[in-house]
Design goal:
Elements lengths: L1 H14 L8 H64 L14 H8 L12
Helix pairs in contact: 1-2, 2-3
């Protein structure tokens, strides 16, 4: 009986409406349903937040790796270009296209990463 009245008291304070006239079992069921909905909503929000955190962490890790790979690739291409320049000191022919820049060579070797998107349902 005391337990039932406590449930009625908690529920009536929550809804700002007196529920003393409701049957105790019905009141308890209402309270349990309310708690389940609140719990489910909190769980969904926590799961969404955790998924977002993990996704952001993974994206940051991929970007870090991509930057390191791009840096290493750029360094290797620059070394190759310096070696070729030392070996070949010939003047460029008139009308010949200029040699590709380091950025163009890096772009050829490493395609752009797809944009990260998230969709929550």
């Amino acid at each position: 009986e005391d337990d039932t009245m406590l449930v009625v008291h908690v529920l009536s304070r929550r809804l700002d409406a007196p529920l003393q006239s409701a049957p105790p079992m019905q009141t308890r069921l209402l309270w349990l349903c309310d708690e389940e909905q609140v719990g489910r909503r909190v769980l969904e929000e926590e799961c969404a937040a955790e998924y977002t955190r993990l996704f952001a962490s993974r994206v940051a890790e991929y970007r870090k790796c991509a930057r390191a790979l791009r840096r290493r690739l750029t360094d290797e291409i620059e070394k190759e270009m310096k070696k070729k320049a030392k070996k070949k000191k010939a003047k460029p022919k008139k009308g010949a296209p200029p040699p590709p820049t380091v950025e163009e060579l890096v772009a050829e070797q490493m395609p752009a990463a797809p944009a990260a998107t998230t969709t929550f349902t």
